[in-house]
């Protein structure tokens, strides 16, 4: 049995979980998320807990068991606490500023880069070199943060670019003289 998949998920107060066939909907104080469960996996709500079960021990069923349980648990945490990911802009002349709901980066290109948040995501700018991406969906927050990092990845010689908060950049030695 999957060590992760067999664990029940406690439903906190103020959260409502509805299972309708292969669709699981989680409603909480911060919003609502829905998830389509893959074919062989069954989900049911029993005594204030969510139980995820699989019908057999086939390879596909085993691999989807723990995944489905974790996705439902992430949705429950998202609608109660939410998720956030921090980004740092490092480099001389590199900065970020908020423009309405969106943000604007100056990353050494000939033009500023304006980014608008997708639905369900908020940007918070701290100082002129820190951005916090927040939302209720763990997947959406991580994807938006990764796309912002892609605007100017940290380079290995001086470490300039957009990096995750606390990320260690592997540094390389530059040219060596004779």
Automatic annotation (TrEMBL):
Pfam families hit by this protein: Ribosomal_L6 (PF00347)
Domain Large ribosomal subunit protein uL6 alpha-beta: 11-82, 90-164
Keywords: Ribonucleoprotein, Ribosomal protein, RNA-binding, rRNA-binding
Highest taxon listed in the record's lineage: Bacteria
Record bears the keyword rRNA-binding: yes
Function of the molecule: This protein binds to the 23S rRNA, and is important in its secondary structure. It is located near the subunit interface in the base of the L7/L12 stalk, and near the tRNA binding site of the peptidyltransferase center.
Family: Belongs to the universal ribosomal protein uL6 family.
Subunit structure: Part of the 50S ribosomal subunit.
HAMAP family: Ribosomal_uL6_B (MF_01365_B)
Protein name: Large ribosomal subunit protein uL6
Native source species: Agrococcus versicolor
Gene that this sequence comes from: rplF
